[in-house]
């Protein structure tokens, strides 16, 4: 075989492995119920608001919703039904509010902060910084250095697993304030 053929077969094998692993995880995954919803004070409007309620301005259809100010994600399925919601640790670089799509995914890599991460779901690029959701393999959450540009929105491992199963390539990601 030529060198290019060997490389092509290796790449195909790698993608087949990733697809197989994602399918195995999808078959084993049962979405957990949305978190309970105690009320809290919304600092931007000064009125009481359910901090876990899906933002009104977050679109329609099956999508991921990321609220910058609330540091929260919603996985929204058919019928505008929230399948899961959870808190995240934001990156130091944030996307502008708007609608994006999942552009790429990686099952395991090393994050820009040097920490091994898994279930990476990328959806935006801001000033050369790639923005996406991920979970640290060791379960740690970052202590953000505001002087360092990072795009990883960190999740707990179980939340990262749910995101991985839900947010396939092309899935809309709606970012709201």
From TrEMBL:
Q: Does the keyword Signal apply?
A: yes
| The entry's keywords | Signal
Annotated signal peptide: 1-21
**Low complexity bias: where?**
31-46
Q: Which domain of life is it from?
A: Bacteria
What residue spans carry the region label Disordered? 23-57
Its name, as the record gives it, is: L,D-transpeptidase
Name the species this protein comes from. Streptomyces albiaxialis
| Lineage per the UniProt record | Bacteria, Bacillati, Actinomycetota, Actinomycetes, Kitasatosporales
């Amino acid at each position: 075989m030529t060198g290019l053929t060997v490389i092509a077969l290796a790449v195909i094998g790698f993608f087949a492995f990733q697809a197989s692993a994602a399918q195995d995880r999808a078959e084993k995954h049962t979405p957990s119920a949305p978190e309970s919803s105690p009320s809290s004070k919304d600092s931007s409007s000064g009125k009481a608001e359910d901090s876990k309620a899906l933002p009104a301005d977050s679109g329609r259809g099956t999508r991921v919703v990321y609220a910058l100010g609330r540091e929260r994600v919603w996985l929204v399925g058919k019928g505008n039904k929230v399948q899961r919601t959870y808190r995240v640790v934001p990156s130091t670089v944030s996307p502008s509010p708007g609608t994006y799509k999942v552009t790429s995914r990686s099952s395991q890599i090393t994050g820009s902060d040097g920490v091994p991460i898994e279930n990476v779901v990328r959806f935006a690029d801001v000033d050369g910084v790639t923005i996406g959701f991920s979970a640290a393999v060791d379960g740690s959450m970052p202590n953000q250095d505001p002087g360092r540009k990072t795009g990883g929105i960190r999740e707990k491992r179980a939340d990262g697993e749910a995101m991985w199963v839900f947010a396939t390539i092309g899935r809309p990601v709606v970012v709201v304030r």
